[in-house]
Sequence to fold (40 residues):
Amino acid sequence: MHISAVERSGLTDLRDDQKVTFDIEPGRDGRESAVNLALA
Fold:
């Protein structure tokens, strides 16, 4: 998961060991993107 996905989700206070959930969706450029990030 790229840091830009975390920044877009608004999860700014993540710890190194923090678990998150997310979905994967295809991006416009053919790469996959993490979406719907939430604290686990």
Notes: The radius of gyration is 10 Å. The mean pLDDT is 87. The first helix runs from residue 3 to 9.
